[in-house]
Design goal:
Number of strands: 8
Structural class: alpha+beta
Shape: rod-shaped
Strand order of the largest sheet: 4-3-2-1-5
Strand content: 5-15%
Helix content: 55-70%
Order of helices and strands: HHHHHHHEEEEEEHEEH
Number of helices: 9
Length: about 375
């Protein structure tokens, strides 16, 4: 066996001196590659599939085995040369050294640059999240959530783009013709672009909707004329639940009108009818007092941002004068504050003897008219 593999004589001790370190290095390379593959699979499957599942263990074992075999095959014959043997076949040490200086250094630089770009992007995204979530305002938490959502999206997209570019450049250094890959990717992208124009439009619209902070989860909004509470904001769709509990799903690209009723603050508007014989200024004073009393309330006062605003006489109805007023509250608290405000206004009007208007009907009776 020895004469067929080597030129000259070779002892078993010398062969083992080359084989054992080679197997150790190949095992170490397989371990490192297995850890990298494990992290990649974990990033892909997330929490949806356990890493102990056979569907995950099988690919990991295949990666470990393939890495071990390839590294052992590449390093074994140069190891023979290092211990003084002259193998008849295999890759020579000179060939590996020439390839390492010609292409290996480039591959190392590509890997380091790709890693640096990924880390730099992650740092920039983290800085962006920190800057956006600054402040102690009431919507600071919502802005932080939105920043994390947008930052996660940017981080994933940039990581995939950088990794794909680095892999193609490394394959090119290994002598693999990447032209068919690029051509196939271009054709596939063109086909997807033509076949999924609506999806692309929805994704782009969703991205800018999140970026521009147009609406957030928990807002009260009206989309294309349908009002409700925003439950989910995705890149492709937005989910709205109305007061009846019906869930409405709108593709982001199909949204033509979006009215956010709880952006930063909310107003509760009341149109109060009073009789024609009542003094509007006196009623306004009563309403101002009710608003000031609510602001001092320990429960409702924290939700009121400004004193009650009496906008004045707004209209003349058939049997009443209508006074419009509004109160500014924190988002999503306007209805709670408004209901309590209505109750207190009704109580204050009764205490001040201000009657609730109702339609008057005059009946005229002529003397001598036929009772029929």
């Amino acid at each position: 066996m020895t004469p067929s593999l080597f030129r000259g004589t070779a002892s078993l001790q010398t062969i083992l001196l080359a084989v054992i370190p080679t197997l150790v290095l190949a095992g170490l390379a397989a371990f490192v590659m297995g850890r990298l593959a494990r992290r990649a699979l974990q990033a892909v499957v997330g929490d949806h599939l356990s890493l102990s599942s056979p569907l995950v263990r099988g690919p990991l074992r295949l990666v470990n085995l393939a890495t071990f075999v390839v590294c052992a095959a590449l390093l074994l014959f140069p190891a023979f040369e290092l211990v003084g043997l002259r193998p008849r076949t295999g890759v020579s040490l000179t060939t590996i050294a020439e390839w390492a200086f010609a292409h290996g250094i480039k591959i190392l630089v590509i890997g380091l640059l790709a890693y640096a770009l990924v880390r730099a992007t992650a740092l920039l995204v983290r800085r962006f999240e920190h800057e956006v979530s600054k402040g102690t305002s009431l919507d600071a938490l919502e802005r932080a959530k939105r920043a994390r959502t947008l930052g996660s999206l940017v981080s994933k997209v940039s990581t995939v783009a950088i990794t794909a570019s680095a892999v193609l450049m490394v394959l090119n250094e290994f002598g693999v013709n990447i032209t068919p890959v690029l051509t196939g990717a271009g054709i596939a992208g063109l086909a997807v672009g033509f076949g999924a124009q609506t999806v692309v439009r929805d994704v782009i619209s969703g991205f800018f909707m999140i970026l521009e902070d147009q609406v957030r989860v928990g807002d009260s909004a009206a989309i294309n004329g349908t009002g409700g509470l925003v439950e989910q904001i995705n890149l492709r769709t937005i989910v709205l639940r109305d007061e009846e509990g019906t869930v409405h799903v709108f593709p982001n690209g199909a949204i033509t009108t979006l009215a956010n009723r709880s952006k930063d603050f909310s107003y509760y508007v009341i149109t109060l009818p009073i009789p024609y014989h009542e003094d509007a200024d006196r009623v306004s004073e009563v309403l101002t007092g009710v608003g000031a009393e609510m602001q001092k309330d320990p429960h409702y006062g924290v939700f009121i941002l400004e004193p009650i605003e009496i906008m004045g006489v707004d209209a003349f109805a058939e049997w009443s004068v209508q006074i419009k007023l509004r109160i500014k509250t924190v988002p999503q608290r306007q209805h709670e504050v408004g209901r309590e405000l209505r109750k207190r206004i009704r109580r204050a009007l009764d205490q001040q003897g201000i009657a609730v208007p109702f339609p008057d009907r005059l009946v005229a009776v002529r003397e001598g008219a036929d009772p029929k």
